[in-house]
Structures are given as C-alpha cells and as structure tokens.
Amino acid sequence: MVEVREARYRTPFLVVAVLFILWGIFGAADLPNIPYVGYLTDGNNTVVQVEPGSPAQLAGMQVGDYITSIAGIPVEDSRALARLPRPQVGDTRTLVVEQRAETELAAAPGRPPSRSVELTYLAQPGRDLTLGIAGVFIGLCFVVFGLGAYMRVPTRSATLLALTGLCLGVAFFAGPYLQSFTLRTIAAAIQLVIIIFGFAFLLHFMLEFPQTKAILAKAHMTKLLYAPALLMAIFALFLIILQPAATSTLNVLARSLFGLFVVVYFGLALWAMIHSYVKASPRQRSGYGLNFMLVGVIIGLLPITIAALIGVFAPRVVLPGYNFYFLTLVLIPFALAAAVIKSERAPAPAPIM
Known about the structure:
8% strand, two-stranded antiparallel ribbon, Pdz3 Domain
C-alpha cells in the first residue's frame, strides 16, 4: 500500500536532483582540463604505482619514492597545498622525492638521499576520460533510478532509496573546477558530508526493505545506525576546514578510518540483503524482486568493498585493474529500484524479518 505521507518530498527531491545533475554535467565538461600525472600513492605520499609512458615515468619517478614536497611546499603543509591552483595541461612542477627502503633492516643509516623530479602534466589519455564519463553516467543512474522509484512508489523504503541515490550519486560528480579556494573548500565539505550519509541511507534502506527488520525496533537503533556517519562527517569537516598538518600519523589515521567506514557500511548492507533473501520464501523472492536485487548488490558492492579492505590493511598493494572496480556499482541503483517498484504489486506478503 502506498504511504501517501512520504509523497511530500517529491518537490525537494526533484530540486536537489536537478542541482546535483547540473553539477555532474559541469564536471563532465571539465574532464579534459584535468591533467594527467600517472602515479599512485598509498595515501601517505609513498608511490606505489607508476604507469608506463606516463608523465611520472618520463620524469623518472619510481615505485617506492616518498614525496617530500610539491612545488616547493612540504607535503605536511596541507593548508598551502590546498591553496595551490590546479596545474594546467603542459605545466611543470618540481617534486622532491626520497627513495626509501622497503624495510628498516634494509635502510641505510641517516636520511635517505633526495632528488628533484620535474613533472610535466599532460592531457588525460582516452582510457581515463572514458572512465570519467562512465563515472558520471553511474552517478546519473543512482540519482535517476532512486528518484524514479520514489516517484512511482512513494513508500518509506523508496524514500530511503531516493536519499541513497542522491547522496551516493553525487560521489561520482567531480563538479567544475572552482578558482576560488574558499568556494572549493565549501563545495568539498558539502559534497563529502553528503556522500558519507549516503552510506548510512543505503544501510538503512537494506534494513527497511522489503520489511523492517527486527533490529530496528530496538531502542535508539536508528540513531546508532547514523552515529558513525555523523562522527565521520565531523572528522571530514575537521580535515577540510581546519586543515591540520598532514603528518604521517594523520594520513594513516584518515586512510584507515575512511576505509573501515566504507567496508563496515557496505559489508553490513550486504549482510542485510543476504538476510532478507534467506528469510524470504521462493514466492516472496520472486514477488519482491529479491533474486535480481541479490545478484546486483553482491556484484555491485563486493569488488569495491574488497578493494577498500585491502586499502586499509595493505595500502601498498595495487590490485590489477583497480581503476575499473567502481564500474560494477552501476548495477546497484537499477537492482534496488526494480525491486522497490516490483514490490508495489507483489502477490505475496512481505517476508518476516
């Protein structure tokens, strides 16, 4: 039965969706202006991958290099680096790197020798541009499918799905480059907070659909569901607005916290989906679209969850084809929206959760 009280969010959802989609379109138009460097770090300034033929390789960067400064600014000075304008294609910046030993036993006494690397930024290769456009498309799918399901079936579950789509969809929208440092900071802060709560909305949806699970009936459980997201949002705002010194300790802490946040919320969402499937009868699985939903959620979430887990415990491990893992996420909005819409005409009662 349609919950009419939830239909009041239609206009706000539409307005937010239009704003987010415009942000994504402007970001897509800016993709060719994003320079290409071709190296990857572990989140703590150590180079873990240098792509063949990339500007980084041409400049002489190597796996294991520890970046100590960029354009004369120490990597710990997060405030100065944040104010550094985005380089243009063709610009050259000087990076100072140290080649550090893999282990303490192999390290020579004293500070490792440093060298300067002249890095000339090039235009993005076709592969990266294509992946960028694919990311925008996935973001559009999250926004459109989530909102479409809500417009069709304005139930509580569909409301949570629409919120999930809006919040996680904006994660794929880089937006246009803003010349003003202040505007960049404000935009980054707002976008990151929205994304963080998208994880909580996804888990909440999984606990509500196709029927509210017993765990949500416990006292303060809904508050506990969103509490980690609130704490993570506060931590993210602390990093973005106050810009503390990016010490090695803070870098590792931030990488670990964000990685564990993704793993825990995605992992719990997977568990909730599997729980719903196991509790349902074959008739209920078919009637509520749980068969396709299960496949879509597992294939969609598993690769990125595994990558996040490895990023926490083995940040220097580069998984083959890691930059393609996010593509499976496109299955999630389609699978969830299809299940919500199908549940409207489900012939069987919702499974007991």
